[in-house]
Amino acid sequence: MTCISNIEDILQVIQMKRNEPDEEYKYLFEEAQDLAKYTETIIEMQRVVKRQVCKLKLAFRVCTLTQNFFFLQINRDNIPASFANEYFKLNIFIPLLDHLIVAIKDRFSEHVKKAAAISCLIPEHIADKSYDDLLPAIELYQKFLHCSTA
Q: Superkingdom of the source (predicted)?
C-alpha cells in the first residue's frame, strides 16, 4: 500500500531531522526572526530557575474561606541554555519532533498496517491486488471469519 510506504518515508525524514536538528532548526529560527522583525517582536528566552514554586488558591464556597496551597511545579520545560535559539531548540523543537515520532508510530503500528490490508477488497483496488496482499488482514481477523487461510 502506498500510504503505508509514504508514512514510513515521512517517519524516516522526521527521524533524520531529530537526529541532526541543527540545520533544520537554524532555518526555522531564522524564519521566526524574520517574522518577529516584521511584527516588531523580540525573541527572547524565558527566565530559567532551579526550583519553581507556584501558588494555587482554592476557594471553599461552603465556609467562604480561601486557603493557599503551595506545590512544586515539575511539568515545565526548564532546560538551561545560553541563548534564545538554543533554549527554544532544546525546550520546544526537539520535544515536538519526539512527540511527532511517537504519535505517528502509535497511529500507524503494525496492527494498523495489517488491518489496512483489508482495503484490497475495495472494488477499485481488487484488480491490482493478489490474495497474498490480503493475507495479513485474513490472519488478523481469522478468528472472526470462521475459516482457514489455506
A: Eukaryota
> What tens digit of pLDDT does each residue of 54-78 get?
544 444 444 444 454 444 445 566 6
Three cell numbers, residue 64: 467562604
Of 114, 102, 108, the residue nearest 139 (C-alpha) = 114
- Go through the chain and tell me how many residues it has: 150
How much is the pTM? 0.65
**Per-residue three-class SS string for 45-112:** CCCCCCCCEEEEEEEECCCCEEEEEEEECCCCCCCCCCCHHHHHHHHHHHHHHHHHHHHHHHHCCHHH
What grid cell was written down for 128?
Answer: 491490482
